[in-house]
Amino acid sequence: MAEPKRYITSEELKAHNKSGDLWISIQGKVYDVSEWVNHHPGGELPLLNLAGQDATDAFVAYHPGTAWQFLDKFFSGFYLKDYSVSEVSKDYRKLVYEFSKMGLFEKKVMGFSFPCVLWH
Fold first, then answer.
1. Looking at the domain assignment, is residue 90 inside a domain?
2. Host domain of residue 66
3. DSSP letters for 35-54
4. Which one in 1, 13, 17, 36 has a CA-CA gap of 20 to 30 Å to 74?
C-alpha cells in the first residue's frame, strides 16, 4: 500500500527561501534544492530568486527535457496543498505547446538544449 501524500501550503513553502534552506515547487511537488544550489550549472542566483515559490515555468524555460529525470533525488516528500496555476502561466504554457507543435523552438542555442515540454 502506498504511503499517503504529505502536504504543505504555499505559505509554508515561502519559509524555505534562503541559502541552506531552499525549497522550490515544480508542478505542485516540493523539492529541497539546498545542497544542489552550489552545483547548479546556472549558478545559485536563479535558485535563490525562486526560493520558496513555484518554479515550474522557469524550470521548463531553461532546462532540457532530460532534466526532469533528475528531480526525484531532490523531492522533499511534500506536495503543495494549495497548488494552482496562474492565468499568466496558463497562457504561457499554451504558447509553449502551440509553438512546439509548430516547430518554432530551437533545439540548441549556444550549446544549451531547450525543451518542448507540453501541458494540457
1. no
2. 7-83
3. TGGGT-TT-SHHHHHHTTSB
4. 1
